Amino acid sequence: MANRNLAVRNHRGKKAEKSLRTSGASYRLLFEKNPQPMWVYDVQSLAFLAVNQAAVEHYAYSREEFLRMTVRDIRPAEDLPALLESVRKTVEGLEKGGTWRHRKKDGTLIDVEITSHDLDWAGHPARLVAIEDITERKRAEKKLRQSEESHRLLVEQSPDAILVHRRGRIIFANSGAAALFGASGVDELLGKQHLDFVHPDNREVVKQRIQEFSYDLLSVRRNETRFLRLDGTEIYAEVAARSIIYQGDAATQVMFRDVSKRKKAEEELRRSEARLAAAQAIAHLGDWSWDILNDELTWSAEMFRIYGVSPQEFDGKPASVGKLIHPDDVWLREKSVRDLLAGKVVEPYEYRIIRPDGEERVVQVLGGAVERDETGVPLRISGVVLDVTERKKAEERFYKAFHASPQPITIATASDGRYIDVNESFLGVTGYQREEVIGRTSIELKFWERPEDRATLLQKLDKDGSVRDLEITFLTKSGEKRTALDSAERVDIAGQKCILAIFKDISEQRTLEKQLRQAQKMEAIGQLSGGIAHDFNNLLSVIIGYGEVLQESLPEGDPRHKNCEQITKAGRSAASLTRQLLAFSRQQVLEPRVLDLNAVVLHVEKMLRRLIGEHIELTTALSGNLGRVKADQGQIEQVIINLAVNARDAMPNGGKLTIETADEDLDQSYVHKHPFHPPGPYVLLTVSDTGVGMDAETQARIFEPFFTTKEIGRGTGLGLATVYGVVKQSGGFIWVYSELGHGTTFKIYLPRTTEAMGADRAVSSSESLRGNETVLLVEDEEALRDFTTTVLTQSGYTVLAAERPDKAVEIASQHQGPIHLLLTDVIMPGMNGRALAEKMAAIRPEIRVVYMSGYTGFTHPGLVDSNVILLAKPFTREALLHKVREGLAPVADSKAK
Questions:
Q1: Radius of gyration (Cα) for the chain, nearest Å?
Q2: Of the candidates 541, 531, 532, 537, which has an alpha carbon nearest to the alpha carbon of residue 785?
């Protein structure tokens, strides 16, 4: 059977050859001479029917071997299913047959691309196939892919930033580029213009480089440029650009290497070199070398500048240098050379030089090294010369500033602390003479009030080399304690280790701070006292008022009448205490008038003589043409009485009490020493005694409420507190001086006024306290509101009572008849009395107003306008009715008319 098939194929082959011969010479030439392997095979049997010479040569089979084979014989077994499938398809026209694998005669597998065409071969279906061996191409493509993958990985993972742009638009970026330009990822860079990342100052230069680059596509350009990150910060990068083909089209690849740190280091190096050069120039430091055997000097450039000669003028001979040294100082140089040659250590020394232009300067010679041969013969001496002319001048200026400084300054040796110099300010503060200080230590002078201050100073000096503003307490020659801020530093003066100390005397500052703390304490106590007194005033008004009402309702023989009298008496005593507390806290209500202090003193003088007793002499020294003050006369009288009583108690065995008045004008120099007291014109009231006096500790507390040095049962401790409050509330201040055994002086400064004195407002004593007018009462304290209503009603008045300001406004708006008087508390929740009165004036313009208050809060603190009628809490029944009649007086006058 096999022989039959072979015979059939041979027969067909011969027929095919015959067919080829009959196809024409051109066809045979195309088939046989084609450089590509070609064959024809039977589509049904897959047998080769014809092969060309190129196929024979490429596959290494002879033509006869081919014609005995089928297409299966050159295909790997695993490719046969695909082969059979492709054979079953009809090929219409010329068709690419895809990529296949063929096996050569030696077993080598090759990759091929085939092109086929169906044809009729001697009456049988056949297929003409042209083969292109693409083994090398595929191998090259594989290598290319591997190379591209390696390049891609290299680009992606490169620490350098890499961008690809086409006509300026970024089409590729690696992670290094994203990091360099501060992007969250590469996608944030794609599509952006690469020039947007170039610093504006460099864009024109970069554009020019791109233009030049476009004319020279094969070159690689490198440069350094400033760029901007996405956040706007500047970076420096080294850039290399080259033309590439990317994704089939021309593009530019740019590699960036961040050199910001290097640029910064270079810039710092340049600055450092500049600083070093400047320092060398400023230092005026030159070096020299003397060749002893040849007797020649070698100088650095700075040496020529120091000596003022040019290299051309210098002959290099030591004798020539000697002519530039001041005649009086030549011996210093000669001695140092002899000492150096003798092997001695030469300390730095100074001498004067006279430059060729006649200028005299001072130089310092530092060190000096001798070079010797192996036998000890000196060959060369080298050294350094420093121009210290400016330093010498600075030392002279320092010396002048040292002695002219207003701050105390000392210079002491670091080794044993002995003073080598102190300035005049130090002597002035401490009280010593210069000869008492120089050569002695601070310990010997007993300078330190606290020895631990000295220990702290030395510890800080040892640790840090300097001390700044260490607070110390020192003693003057007289033993006075003073406070200072001590700053010290280790210095080198004329080669000697020293300690330079500067003191800032802050004794006055600490005194002022103490005064401020005292004032703040007094203010806090005053606020507390005022709050307590205010709350008590409402209660005392009720207690005193109802006590009076009850007392009037009882016959005088009734025992209960006496009890009621005691109740009201106790209430008035309590009211006196609250008034003193309010006076101290500057919250009492004052009715200031323009006063003549001389008249006030004369008014209370008789009372004072009875008050202090015959064992104390009272004298007054009242200034003529005394200025006026604006104050509450009753309170100023109380101030004088309280001071007189205080003086009396300080002189149990008799003495002298002096009251003086005078005009005083306080200027800025006074204010500088007393910063809490404003400058200007004042009237001075002085009260002095020759009593036992006070120590400093007692003086610091005399104005505190309830503080007293008297035995139990004598005094409340509110006398001087009241004085303090009244004076402060009147815009003045108090100065106190006292020494144990030498008495006490109180000086009260009250602001002088230019206002004219006016007549006091008074209510006629004959005027009836009853009335029939309508009174609108506003008081948030229920008990006081009920008491006031009861008193007014009993006296014939019609009372409209309201517990809140808004309720009062409502009543005033709805009441049909007239309302003659608004009697209102000052301090109430929601609205104060002044605001309520203004609202009432809009509703009822004719209404009169009387205010009730235990302390101030609606005008200037503690001061009542002269046109305002105010009923001070706590008040009595009679005081209430008097103030109501006073407020209604204009109404009564209009009725009379």
A1: 59
A2: 541
What CATH number is given to the structural domain containing 842?
A: 3.40.50.2300
Tokens linked to 14: 């011969």
Cα–Cα distance between 830 and 780 in angstroms, integer?
A: 11
- The sign of the dihedral angle between the CA atoms of 882, 883, 886, 891 is negative
Q: Are residues 192 and 309 in the same domain?
A: no
Work out the burial of residue 772: count CB atoms within 10 Å of its CB; fewer than 13 is exposed, 13-18 middle, 19 or more buried. Answer: exposed
Give one DSSP letter per residue of 24-73, joined into a string.
Answer: -HHHHHHHHH-SS-EEEEETTT-BEEEE-HHHHHHH---HHHHHT-BGGG
In 3-state terms the chain splits into helix, strand, coil percentages (rounded to 5) of: 45, 30, 30
Helices (H) then strands (E): counts for the chain: 27, 32
Q: Could you report the per-residue pLDDT of 588-602, keeping only the tens digit for each?
A: 555 678 999 999 999
The pTM (predicted TM-score) of the whole model is: 0.35
Query: Running DSSP on this structure, what letter comes out for residue 590?
Result: B
Q: What is the 3-state secondary structure (H, E, C) of 810-870?
A: HHHHHCCCCCCEEEEECCCCCCCHHHHHHHHHHHCCCCEEEEEECCCCCCCCCECCCCCCE
Q: Indicate if 675 and 607 belong to the same structural domain.
A: yes
Q: Check which CATH number belongs to the domain holding 412 and give it.
A: 3.30.450.20
632-670 as b/e: b if 16+ CB within 10 A: bbebbbbbbbbbbbbbbbbbeeebebbbbbbeeebeeee
Rounded Cα distance between 657 and 651, Å, is 9
Predicted pLDDT of residue 86: 80
Question: Residue type at 612?
Answer: I
Look at the alpha carbons of 109, 115, 118, 120 in this order and tell me if their dihedral is positive or negative.
negative
Least confident of 131-140, 164-173, 349-358, 558-567: 558-567
Angle CA 273–276–281, to nearest 5: 125
* Closest-CA residue to 784 (of 530, 551, 544): 544
Q: How many domains does the chain fold into?
A: 7
Distance CA 137, CA 106 (A): 21
Q: Look up tokens 């005081």; give the residue.
A: 879
Q: Are residues 624 and 715 in the same domain?
A: yes
Task: Return the residue matching tokens 């589509």.
Answer: 43
- Distance (Å) of CA 64 to CA 47, 48, 125: 12, 10, 22
Sequence-distant (≥ 6) Cβ neighbours of residue 225 within 8 angstroms = 198, 199, 202, 205, 206, 236, 237, 239
Tokens read off for 519: 């004032």
On whether the CB atoms of residues 657 and 640 are closer than 8 A, the answer is no
pLDDT given at position 1: 44
Q: Give the domain range for residue 178.
A: 158-263
Longest CA–CA separation in the chain, Å:
176
Chain centre distance of CA 197: 35
Q: In Å, what is the CA distance from 725 to each residue of 532, 635, 749?
A: 16, 10, 13
Q: What are the tens digits of pLDDT across the range 302-328?
A: 899 999 999 998 898 988 888 999 999
411 and 387 co-located in one domain: no
Give the C-alpha separation, 605 to 28, whole Å.
Answer: 160
How far apart (Å, rounded) are the C-alpha atoms in residues 528 and 704?
12
> Is 145 within the bounds of a domain?
no
